[in-house]
Amino acid sequence: MPRLNPGAWADSAVDFLQRHLSWLFDAVSAVVTGLYDGIHAVLSAPAPLLLAGLLAVAAWWLRGLLAAVLAFAGLALVDSVGLWGDAMATLSLVLVATLATLVIAVPIGIQAARSPRLGAALRPVLDFMQTMPAMVYLIPGVVFFGIGVVPGIIATIVFALPPGVRMTELGIRQVDPELVEAADAFGTTPRKTLLRVQLPLALPTVMAGVNQVIMLGLSMVVIAGMVGGGGLGGAVYKAIGNVDIGLGFEAGLSIVILAMYLDRMTAALGRQVSPTGRRTLARARSAATGAARLWQHRPQPAYAVTAATVLALLAGGLHTFGGAGTGTAAAAGPGKGRTLTIGYIPWDEGIASTYLWKELLERRGFRVEARQLELGALFTGLAGGRVDFQTDAWLPVTQASYWEKYGNRIDDLGAWYGPTSVELTVPSYMKDVRSLADLKGKGDRFKGRIIGIEPSAGAMGILKERVLKEYGLEGEYEVVDGSTPGMLAELQRAQAKQEPVVVTLWSPHWAYASYDLRKLEDPRKAWGRGDGIHTLARKGFAEDEPEVAAWLRSFKLDEKQLTGLEAKIQAGGKGKEQEAVRAWLAEHPEVAEAATTTA
Amino acid sequence: MSTLQAEHVYKVFGRRPGAAVRALRDGASREELRADGVTAAVIDASFRVEPGEIFVIMGLSGSGKSTLLRMLNGLLEPTEGRILFDGRDLTALSRRELRHVRSTKISMVFQHFALFPHRSVLENAAYGLEVQGVDRADRERRAAEALELCGLSGWQDSWPDELSGGMQQRVGLARALATDADLLLMDESFSALDPLIRRDMQDQLLELQKTLGKTIVFITHDLNEAMRLGDGIAVMRDGRIVQQGTAEDILTRPADDYVASFVQDVDRSRVLTADAVMTGPDTGAGCSCGCPTVTADTPLADLCAVSARVPHPVAVTGTDGVVVGTVAQDRLVAFIGDEHRAPVRCEEAAA
Fold first, then answer.
1. Of all residues in chain A, what percent carry a pLDDT higher than 70?
2. pLDDT tens across A219-258, in order?
3. Are A501 and A548 members of one domain?
4. Contact B334, B311 (CB under 8 A)
5. A142, A424, B10, B32: least CB-packed within 10 angstroms?
């Protein structure tokens, strides 16, 4: 069997598209971004509780009083955990994706219902779209559209399109053929048959499709967060990255609240817009008695509109609408309010250096956006010019494969820390394991497992391809792919039970300060020499911002400074990175002084 | 008023229908074609329906009667042959012209009513007018009139699923009548109803037809219904019309064993009328005795009741009271029993 290479074809197809159709992707990107910004501006304009009130009135009108009370309580909870802004970003993303999906899916579904041949041709395409893991096309999405909300929205559309098409097709096919024939027998044109008979009767099914689309959109939110989609997905991704169970739960809960609100509302809307559904509803309500009657009470549309208007006017009167969104401070210093984008992976030295620079640059009058990204997305973002710089590239060894692929489209501004090391590490209670060579023959005790981190990390490649071979550990040990948080959680669990464990870790890392660990010696130098932590910038950044580039080039931290900063951020807790940086800078004024003084 | 005419109509489903029609003309059987995956639904059907007539097409399921009906308003296009309505060949019309004919000249009533569940009774009845583009006030007035004609006044604002089956079909009938079409196509329209309701609806249809004078093509699998309603009846079997004629023709002179076996189940006493049994007026019945008489269209069931009380053959009178014939009791019994041989001696009858 010859080795076919569909992967290489896909790769070159992506390259080709990027080279020749970038105008198209830019146009799509502009439209989607415009839509998103528009909806987001509307949603984030009113004060949180006011908007929660408006949404509750909508629930009151669509479902009844009980739904309104629960909706308000849920949304108020989102606000109280401080995730309202994220929730609105997520809501905007889902709304834009849903809108776009429906605009595409409904006409396709209608055509598919009319032409069995098209329906049959579409089926495998839809299956492909629905089952292809989202991450697989998310990264090409970043290549085409750059990091940010757009690839997240596009991925959501691709993922949510199939149920939209299928439910529309199904709904129309389900309409009793005798009814269609009746319409035909009275001389109705096909178009009017669609509008007067098929679509009204298919509406409940189509609305169930809309509901599905929204739910799938929400489930994609977290994945979109990995490519800079922000919102609740970003919060979840960040929480996972920091093993922050509390934030993860709160963000997850907020997603659930949004999902339930949207689910119940679209279901109710489905009944509301379909004539048959409206009648069933009216019948059920007139049958209700007592308390059920109160809870199911729904206002006349006029009252609902009035209530919404009053709330809106109130909002206007209280000046609770935000300004036009221009920054309040800024504009002072050499930055003059220009915006810089820093990308980072939620590794500790990445967070520390990124927030350090965010603070330093803001002090100099720049507006800085720090975007948490997945490693692949970060490199493609830099190569595509969508990220200005990042401060956490491990070169030349660990991330060599990324440098090989994207190096010619990225500028290296030099290392600010080094040397680093990557190693296998055991708890120090594993007294008889001191070097990599000692692992041999002890596979049983470690259950044959070496706990790895993200498979995309350069260290994992070196470990699997060089280290295991060098020490003859192949076959005896299996490297478990996972994530940094997963690895740390496993380490913590094993520590608590005093169980044998061997993990992939790197220095500098706060784990060495928190746990009693031993780095395994590498007498054969299989890990290779240490890396420097480099700052990488997009091509052209040094010309656009020569002063910033110069600051970055001369930036240096030593181990004590870095671990101190990391520890400060760890202690500060979630969402307070920048405060921690400020506090640390107050203790180390010389760093700020040195970093942003042009030589 | 307009005549409806079908001329050598074929409908073949499957690949290369033209070739299949040629094969059928050359005497190929339906089974031979089926082996090739071709279904001959209607084979060489010809008939003529005069204005104001109820023409019934009768046959079991799969006999091709519904297919034939759908060719009459162009829902299906004949593979071969012509449908002439109002002097125009429907098969030659464009889709657009066909739609116009369907919306103004030919309407249809369906087996399972086919009411639009998302429209009220009134909106359903007004549907055909809505398609024609009649303005709202006008179409609601006309739809309300049609509903009243069908005995549904007061139900306008109800919804189809709130009505009984019989009432739903009245809505279907009102919808068909509201457009003022000359030709009504009724596809097993009463088959889904209870027997009693079905009878009511048949009576009402006959009543309506008498007052409105519509031309009606009615499909059924029920010979009793066919006999009750039909001025003319066509019996279909395996895609072909095997016999055409009046109810009496079919009952008394079945064309083949198939029709005969069908006819067995018919309540002859209700279908046959006095004129089918009567003999010349000169065979013995006095008419001066003042005994009750019957008319030519009195069903045999009613004739029996009269005959039971009259000691001599019952006189059949014409519209002007003149005696046109008489019916003897033994002849009456023979007809109802479908036994035309003369009585024999006891020994022979026992044998």
1. 90
2. 887 778 777 777 888 888 777 766 678 888 999 999 999 9
3. no
4. no
5. B32
Q: Which residues of chain B have pLDDT under 70?
A: 1-2, 282-288, 351
Q: Could you tell me if A100 and A197 lie in one domain?
A: yes
Nearest chain B residue to A187 by CA distance is B99
Count of structural domains, chain A:
3
Last residue of a domain, one of A491, A519, A547: A519
Is residue A85 domain-shared with residue A165, that is, in the same domain? Answer: yes
| Residue A83 forms part of a structural domain | yes
Residue A387, domain member (yes or no): yes
Probe site for chain B from A174, A176, A180, A186 (most B CB atoms < 10 A): A186
B258 touches chain A (CB under 8 A): no
**Judgement on whether residues A292 and A344 belong to the same structural domain of the protein:** no
Rounded to a whole number of angstroms, the distance from the CA of A453 to the nearest CA of chain B is: 58
- Give the CATH number for residue A495: 3.40.190.100
Least Cα separation, residue B185 to chain A (angstroms)? 10
Q: Is B170 on the interface with A (CB under 8 A)?
A: no
Tens digit of each residue's pLDDT (9 = 90 or more) over A68-99: 899 999 999 999 888 998 899 999 999 999 99
Residues A243 and A95 in one domain: yes
Instruction: Provide the pLDDT for residue A103.
Output: 92
| CATH number for position A240 | 1.10.3720.10
User: Can you give the pLDDT at residue A296?
Assistant: 66
Locate A318 and state its tokens: 């209280």
pTM: 0.69
Q: Are residues A94 and A193 in the same domain?
A: yes
Please list every residue in chain B whose beta carbon sits closer than 8 Å to the beta carbon of residue A279.
159
pLDDT tens digits for A150-165?
888 888 888 889 999 9
- Per the structure, the complete domain to which residue A471 belongs is given by 421-519
Q: A497 and A434 share a domain?
A: yes
- Is ipTM strictly over 0.90? no
CB contact under 8 Å between A186 and B131, yes or no, is yes
Same domain, A216 and A294: yes
Q: pLDDT band at residue A329, thresholds of 50, 70 and 90? A: very low
Q: Is A233 helix (H, G, I), strand (E, B) or coil?
A: helix
Give the strand order in the sheet containing B4-13: B39-49, B4-13, B80-85, B88-89
pLDDT digits (tens, 9 = 90+) for A461-491: 888 888 888 888 888 888 888 778 788 888 8
Q: Nearest-CA distance from B162 to chain A in Å?
A: 11
Residue B341: what pLDDT? 77
Pick the most confident of A313-317, A564-568, B171-175.
B171-175
**Among candidate residues A366, A399, A494, A500, the one with its CA nearest the CA of residue A444:** A500
> Which of A234, A343, A259, A258 has the alpha carbon at shortest distance from A574?
A234
Contact A111, A118 (CB under 8 A): yes
* Last residue within a domain, chosen from A519, A546, A581: A519
Q: Is residue A18 part of a domain?
A: no
Q: CB neighbours of B123 closer than 8 A, spacing ≥ 6?
A: B116, B130
Q: Which of A179-183, A591-595, B68-72 has the lowest mean pLDDT?
A: A591-595
Whether residues A187 and B100 touch (CB distance < 8 A) is answered with yes
CA–CA dist A585, A339 (Å, integer): 22
For chain B, which domains are there? 49-269 (3.40.50.300), 271-336 (3.10.580.10)
> Within an 8 Å CB–CB cutoff, is residue B73 touching chain A?
yes
Nearest to B114 among A182, A189, A276 (CB): A182
Task: Give the Cα separation of B2 and B15 in Å (integer).
Answer: 35
Give B28→chain A minimum CA distance, Å: 32
Looking at the complex, report in whole angstroms how far the Cα of residue B319 sits from the nearest Cα belonging to chain A: 42
Domain assignment present for residue A12? The answer is no
Q: Hey, is the C-beta of B117 within 8 angstroms of any chain A C-beta?
A: yes
Q: Which pLDDT tens digit goes with each residue over A578-589?
A: 888 998 888 888
